[in-house]
Amino acid sequence: VEASVPEGQRAAWKKHSAREFKTKEEFENEAVRHIETTLARSLFNCDEAAAYAGTALAFRDRLVIEWNKTQQRQTFADQKRVYYLSLEFLMGRALDNAMLNVGLKDVAKDGLADLGFRMEDIISQERDAALGNGGLGRLAACFLDSLASLNYPAWGYALRYRYGIFKQEIVDGYQVEVPDYWLDFNPWEFPRHDVTVDINFYGSVSQYVDDDGKQRSVWDNGEIVTAVAYDAPIPGYGTTTTNNLRLWSSKASHGEFDFTKFNSGEYEQSVADQQRAETISAVLYPNDSLERGKELRLKQQYFWCAASLFDIVRRFKKSKKPWKDFANQVAIQLNDTHPTLAIPELQRILVDLEGLGWDEAWTIVQATFGYTNHTVLPEALEKWSVPLIQHLLPRHLQIIYEINSRFLQYVEKTFPKEKDILGRVSIIEESQPKMVRMAYLAVIGSHKVNGVAELHSDLIKTTIFKDFVKIYGPDKFTNVTNGITPRRWLHQANPKLSELIASKLGGYDYLRDLTLLHKLEAFVDDKEFRKDFQAIKYANKVRLAQYILEHNGVKVNPAALFDVQVKRIHEYKRQQLNIFGVIHRYLQIKAMSAEEKKKVQPRVSIFGGKAAPGYWMAKTVIHLVNQVGKVINADKEVGDLLKVVFLEDYNVSKAEIIVPGSDISEHISTAGTEASGTSNMKFVLNGGLVIGTCDGANIEITREVGEENIFLFGNLAEDVEDLREAHHKQGFELDPLLKRVFETIRSGTFGDAGQFSALVDSIVDHGDYYLVSDDFKSYIDTQGLIDQSYAKQEEWVTKTILSVARMGFFSSDRCIDEYAEMIWNIEPLKPEANGA
Ligand code: OAK
């Protein structure tokens, strides 16, 4: 506001204010101008990469205009905002989404054709923004899309990693990791070199008495690293609202200290300091659902939380409102426990820096934060060692102890007879060394805690947070079932299906209200519609088959049943169950007569997904899939009856090709381990069916689409504990079909069996923790049912159409409305609202 143009000069300003292109001519004008002047290219050296850049920059200009307006509107509106703190945002590509939201894709397509380019080629020039591992990061990206589309005033906060998730190469069947340096050309980010925050680490805490005679703490004499903001516009669909994603990049602070070093000849040291500072935001940790307790990771977490909170508080303070209004202006959602340090950090700001009393500050903190839990797996629950926090964040450790002590006093008073409860719920685990349990801190510091699917939300209340339900009552815990954005996961990934649906529903309103899909049920018997629907699935399978031929050199028949499992490789997700099932199928085919073979439903088994670089068992699974593929694909006796491929480097943009091309997809985690799953929703929305366990959102998908339209199998979550215990106590009988599979592996059919022994042994000798053997028979039988069902194509098409029609519930728009109402208490701010 201070820097605004004086009243008298505004007319001149407005006259020259940026224009928005609307026509093909204007688009070409903008794109060529960018290619020639921004990129310094010409007619004679404009390749597809340059054409992409010109197109992206033309659309970026459009976004920026709306982004500025939205930010201005949100600043002037006296309204609460939500801040979504997530260490991961798995955004994928931005151009197609920008074109959809600006609404001028056809104009650009014609314009590009005039200039000699094809839209698909231009779109595929963009590299994925892959700042995430898997489900949690992609959920955050879908949420940003929905928040903007629903006009909620919202910002995302994360780190600007120089390296996103590694690229996966498959070399001789093994995963090899290659760094993903994605920032060479990123037209979507805006460096804000004027928006910086100095972040403190290490140092010590001292006490003093302030002017009012109050004891105060100061944290000083540490290492300082500067956070620099980089902003990216997040456009909404069907609205001009354009929200902000702010990513923090670390750099050395140019304080007196460095300067002295530099002058005194310690040049190398000052360069080393600089590199040390830049390391903080250098790389995304590639572990999915596993915590390793590395100091640099904790530094990342604090750096990001402290910069974001400073920013949020700075914005609040500009409003000149009293502190008691903070939680009426600010909601902060913690995406899992990674941002939990934001809790003691806000308490520190309020108490140490702003001088509020402890209780007053704590009331504000609890009212501000909400916490989403994404896993119950013990190895994924974050714990940080007390000595590490003491060293890195001495004042925060004091605050955490104070929070804990007050909490435990309350618990002791409320449950005087329960002696054990204090040890169980303490934020500090009394181990050697002592550990800070971040999930407990997150529960205690938030007003709401949610799980991400019904079963999961029930499970957290009866397992990891059981005692907290007793302490706080059940209302603090709630469920918000995950969702996906239909813009990317239907319209962009499957434009033909989207168009067909629009032709039946009378337009694209369903992309803003996905429940409108239910109207498709009326067309389930419409011959023409069924034919079109089926033809689109086939065309998407042809596209996927071409992709497979190009990338794997394997020719697959698009008429075969395409069976897909793409997700991070993890024992609990049980890709091993899938590949053992494939081996079983292979053995069956091998034993068949020519006559029998004629009755076999041909299948293509498609795998994809990254393994964490240090996760050997997961890497072994990848290797086995590739070895099995090599043998089966070359086996003339099998031919088209079975093909097995592993698609390299699964990511968001590849998912956009793979998902629409699937007939059946596998979501087969050991019951009770997959919190929700979100790709299950994407596959069904694109006319595929699911084979799944009674886990995560599979259960709600079943409720919505009807149990006749999904293939469920396996043991239930409620029986898993007992089965594991029985394995432990009595041992267990290996399923005979699985035994045969293991014998085949051991015989060397897929190469040296020694390479796969850890995988087999984990089941045979080490208790089969993930119950592969217990579920094997039921899995195989269910796959048999799928073959039969697929053979009756008319029935199959009916199932898929009805399923699509019933997926309305799984839009991330529904999900965000639930968060807004139940947890954040925020309202939309429509573009026309205050005339801005
Ligand atoms: C990653 C790191 C730590 C903790 C959890 C995760 C994670 O990705 N969890 C996944 O979150 C998704 C979104 O809620 C769920 O759909 C997946 O089931 C869950 O595994």
Q: Describe the sheet with the most strands.
A: 9 strands, mixed
Question: Which spans have pLDDT < 50 for at least 5 consecutive residues?
Answer: none
Bound molecules: N-(phenylcarbonyl)-beta-D-glucopyranosylamine
What spatial order of strands do you see in the largest sheet? 7-10-11-4-1-12-13-17-18
Question: What percentage of the residues does DSSP assign to strands (E)?
Answer: 15-25%
Report the helical percentage. 40-55%
Which secondary-structure class do the elements indicate? alpha/beta
The coarse silhouette is: globular
CATH class wording of the largest domain:
Alpha Beta
| CATH architectural grouping of the largest domain | 3-Layer(aba) Sandwich
Q: What is the number of helices?
A: 34
CATH superfamily of the largest domain: Glycogen Phosphorylase B
Number of distinct beta strands: 24
Radius of gyration: 28 Å
Taking all residues together, what is the mean pLDDT?
Answer: 96
- For the record, the count of structural domains works out to 3
CA-CA gap between termini: 14 Å
Give the quaternary arrangement of the chains.
single chain
